[in-house]
Amino acid sequence: MNLYAILRRNGWRSPEELQEAAERSTRVGDEDMPEEVRWIRSYVLEESDGSLGTVCIYQAVSPEAIRKHASRADLPMDEIIPIADTVLVRPDPQPVSV
To answer: What's the topology of domain 2-82?
Structure first.
């Protein structure tokens, strides 16, 4: 499997909508496509219009598998970017509590 970043801009109006999408994504990936896509992590973006977007990191057999996963899970998708390498300076910080 290769590593990809998926950009999803302005996908959700609320954290609740995003949570529902995450549940669909997990279900489709784990139950329907476990040998094709694997969700690694996502970073939630605060968009300028107040909506939420994400940058998602996936392992997948191909960009087509990512598109199929997004379609089955009813997820927006603006761009798929192959990741060439990883430079880890520090682990991700703990989530900020609001």
So the answer is: Alpha-Beta Plaits (3.30.70)
